[in-house]
Amino acid sequence: KITPIKQYKSNKSMNSQSIKGIGVTKSGDVDVLTEVTVPKPQLAPEDILVQIKGVALNPVDYKVRAGMLNNATEENPKILGYDGSGVVVELGSNVKGFKVGDEVFYAGNAVRNGTLADYHAVDYRIVGKKPTKISHAEAASVPLVWITAYEALVDNVGISTDPKKNEGKTLLIVAGAGGVGSVAIQLAKKVLGLKVIATASRPETIEFVKKMGADVVVNH
Known about the structure:
Largest sheet: 5 strands, antiparallel
Low-confidence stretches: 1-8
Radius of gyration: 20 Å
């Protein structure tokens, strides 16, 4: 039986030995999404336990729901969610640089249970301190898309992270109003020091791309 997502009720008590989340017990379309309960995670030495305050959805989430890295069963449900933001409530024995009460954000690991839950265990080495000037919802929207844009520009294209080495260089970003495209504009312009040409087609997306920092917008 599928539990309507609107009936989800958070389990806010850490006295419980279980956590609740939104996940699946089998692969499929959106109708397989349901409320699930799983045991409270046992922390590995490098894990922190985060009380989730904000989450974001990405293409990887529907891919996992549809079957990627997903061996969910009734006995072993899979909680979805990749990006998250929240407050540290427990620390593994080898965790460094974090303490209980820290506000954090991160892109998680699709192999483990995800962030669409009350609490989430994550390796502290892929976690950052949440910027104080943005909300948890805003922070949760950052990690995966920014990592994707950075890896595309720096790791794959090979653009230097030294702005001085990029002086006089221009980067063309196609589909500049998209999630990765709009982030790539900001990285290229603000961090890497490049001149940016971006494509967009509608009046509202053209204005958006300009707001993101594009020097030139090409209406494709």
